[in-house]
Specification:
The chain has about 90 residues and is mostly beta strands. The protein has no helices and eight strands. It has a domain of about 60 residues.
Length: about 90
């Protein structure tokens, strides 16, 4: 029997809303950008479901929120568009 529901896991390094998340080929989840209270974020975090932990993984060239994120065939991730608090990208 499979039970469906939500499980608590580790906290992200940066609290954020209006971000994007993509499942990578290795099963980890990449989260980019978003909004943190008064800051537009350019940070990215990687979630490992096997350990329940988040790791900071880098920074985008622009802070952005409400953007799109696509995993490409070669495994790279393309982040496009969004809003940086001043203009639309």
């Amino acid at each position: 029997m499979v039970l469906l529901g939500w499980l608590a896991t580790g906290n992200m390094n940066d609290a954020r809303s209006d971000h994007t998340a993509s499942v990578l080929r290795n099963g980890k989840v990449l989260v980019t950008g978003g909004f943190n209270y008064s800051l537009y974020l350019n940070s990215a975090e990687l979630y490992d479901p096997s350990t329940g932990t988040w790791t900071m993984t880098g920074y985008m060239n622009h802070s952005r929120t409400v953007h799109t994120e696509s995993v490409l065939l070669d495994g790279k991730v393309l982040v496009t568009g969004g809003y940086d608090g001043i203009s639309y990208l």
